[in-house]
Amino acid sequence: MITFSPGDRIAVLLPVPLFGALDYLTGDDPLAPGDFVRVPLGTRTVTGVVWGAVTDPQGDFTCLPVKESLKLAPLPENTRRFIDWVASYCLAPPGAVLKMAMSVPKALEPGKRPPPRLIPADPLPVGYKVTEARARVLEAARLPQSTADLARTAGVVPSVIRGMANAGALVEIEGVEIEGGKIETGPQPDPNHPGPTLSPGQRAAADSLRARIDAGFAVTLLEGVTGSGKTEVYFEAIAGALAAGRQSLVLLPEIALSAQWLARFEKRFGVPPTVWHSDLGEPERRRAWRAVSRGDAKVVVGARSALFLPFPALGLVVVDEEHDGSYKQDEGVCYHARDMAVVRGHLSGLPVILASATPSLETAANVEAGRYTKLILPSRHGGASLPEVALVDLRRDPPPRQQWISPPLHQAVERCLQAGEQALLFLNRRGYAPLTLCRACGFRLQCPHCTAWLVEHKVGSRLQCHHCGHYTTKPEECPGCQAEESFAACGPGVERVAEEAAMLFPDARIAIMASDLLPGPKAAAELVDRMARREIDLLVGTQIVAKGHHFPLLTLVGVIDADLGLAGGDLRAAERTFQLLSQVAGRAGRAEHPGRVLLQTYQTEAKVLQALATGDAEGFAALEAEDRRAGGWPPYGRLAALIVSGGDAGLVEKTAQQLARIAPRDPSIELLGPAPAPLSLLRGRHRRRMLLKAPKQVNLQAYIRHWLGLTKLHWTIQVQVDIDPYSFL
Predict the structure, then answer these.
(1) Fewer C-beta neighbours within 10 Å, C or N terminus of the chain?
(2) What is the C-alpha separation between 704 and 479, in angstroms, rounded?
(3) Region of residue 264 (left: phi > 0; alpha: psi -120 to 50; beta: else)
(4) What DSSP state is assigned to residue 305?
């Protein structure tokens, strides 16, 4: 291991958007790569990471010494290599990528001594009487908690907890000493905890995945229809990693809404995993980051940012719903978490599992090329059958004026509710109405900061921009013609569909499931529990209802607008529509009751809708692949986007045109644009887009790096590079 002695010149990477590490001198204490240090930067002191030796000193300037070495586990070598790789591939400043790995500054500070954590004694003292209140305490204490937290959770006064501890019914858990503060390790997931009985097909797939632990880098696509038990299968791979003493990372597209997944994990392994997502409070994020860094967090389930946590002993990465578009980050450092998960696995020599019922074309192409292997679960677990899918032609069976539920769907919901079963109405559009305009002059209410209409929300009585968050109330008179009370809602959102459903089905218990109406994971879990307990008859939801929820009595899914995702110029529009609607359809008939799906459409002849109706996923994927291959589009070609933005529209346009003029000529690279972005104004910044298209073998990063080096931008102008773009807004 490399060590640096006092006075050695070292490179320190800082979590700031600089394109490289800065030179410092080792202070009084010896240092090693990965050590966290405090260094001077201008007039402030910043925490950074020792990145290595200075191999090519620039100039003869005097280096400042490191101020302090932090007593923390070092940033692992595999994490540092991953940061360098992501920065190079995405053309992002390494410091900006490091910032994602140091996303909890408080975790780098010395911790306070937390109060002791208590767990039930095993066994309880002989003759100890367990009252109803004490039973609640013992149940709550399965998760180690302080006296105050345990009293709150169990609904008792703190003296009850203290009395149980004095009697020996509660004991403090073992811990480790970190900087003088006691940090509990807590109970760990048990790989031998009894799990569900797997079918022969599931067992074969699970054994195959488990055999790949500690066998080096490999990527496996776990493909299975909705309800086939993919989660239970990859749980067995996690059990293998636990048995081998390795950490596991599971990425989920909507971690804050995955209460059922977390419950299934706890049932399989005895305790919950470590959770990581943006809705966690700072104390929880601090504890999670440090537990990962120490290796105490054996299994982490998180959103895409969990990829950058400092795992010292990572042995497995799972990307569930690998096709999901939310794995792509379009701002800051632009990266796709699925692809970077594969890179992390390759750099660390560990297996990666990609799970999906509707794999992305990128993953399918890698399977076809032999880079990935594939395991298939072709049928639903427990003998459940796939739902019947039918198209409702809105040209032939339109709904009544100013309504959106067609007669066939109305009748199907009515029959479903009369049978005592549950139904789901799906529309991937939040709010009450996507557009509000004046009946007198046609004036449309638009966001002042974005090229977007304000979405009306009846819940909360507001008009809101879903791009920048701006909100306001509906004006009493039209700004265009001063007509009073002239504004009308145009088109439906889920709130409006729910309003219509309440009118059509007055006796039904109706609830809405949309991200803006669920203030956090707890609210989402409560709604899912209410649905599972049959306290809801009819659920109206957006895309979050498609994310792995299991409702045994949900037998009917009605899609209000199956054409919604097909509009616009997105090359993945058909693929995304197929994936989303397949996932939504998969909520129906997951138990002994058969399911049915009705897709309302004006485009019954569209290939994606025909494929959904016939269940021909393979045929649809083949047609999509043929179209992409013929046009040289991803995954059979490469794309990169450049977005020029700034506060001055004229300067943005001038800069974009200048960049286009000086672009190096390369016959293998096609430059499209510059042109105004569909969202030509976003958060107050004007935007122009350019798109580079090239064959797979072309190094677009080298081309763009050279191109941007040919000019100096005005300080108010920003050029964002998006390698492998997924959004074209």
Answers:
(1) N
(2) 45
(3) alpha
(4) G
Instruction: Supply the CATH classification number for the domain 118-184.
Output: 1.10.10
Is residue 300's pLDDT more than 90?
yes
Q: Is 687:680 a contact under the CB 8 Å cutoff?
A: yes
Of 537, 536, 508, 491, which is closest to residue 399 (Cα–Cα)? 491
Predicted confidence (pLDDT) per residue in 21-41, tens digit:
999 999 888 999 999 999 999
Cα gap 613→722, rounded to integer Å: 35
> What is the fold of 200-382?
Rossmann fold (3.40.50)
For residue range 620-661, what is the model confidence (pLDDT) as tens digits? 999 999 999 999 999 999 999 999 999 999 999 999 999 999
pLDDT in tens, 536-592: 999 999 988 877 777 889 999 999 999 988 876 688 889 999 998 988 888 887 667
**Side chain identity, residue 62:** T
Unique residue bearing structure tokens 């397949």: 582
pLDDT (0 to 100) of residue 176: 41
515 or 447: whose pLDDT is higher?
447
Yes or no: say if 427 and 497 are a contact pair by the CB < 8 Å rule: yes
**Cβ contact 69:34 at 8 Å:** no
CATH code for the structural domain at 9-102: 3.40.1440.60
Residue 183 has pLDDT above 50, yes or no: no
Mean pLDDT over each residue of the chain, to the nearest integer: 90
Domain boundaries, the chain: 9-102, 118-184, 200-382, 384-429+492-625, 637-723
Inter-CA distances, 152 with 147, 286, 406, 676, Å: 9, 22, 49, 55
The fourth-level CATH superfamily of domain 384-429+492-625 is P-loop containing nucleotide triphosphate hydrolases (3.40.50.300)
CATH number of 637-723: 3.30.70.600
Instruction: Give the C-alpha distances (Å, rounded to integers) separating 336 from 304, 319, 573, 722, 726.
Output: 8, 11, 18, 10, 9
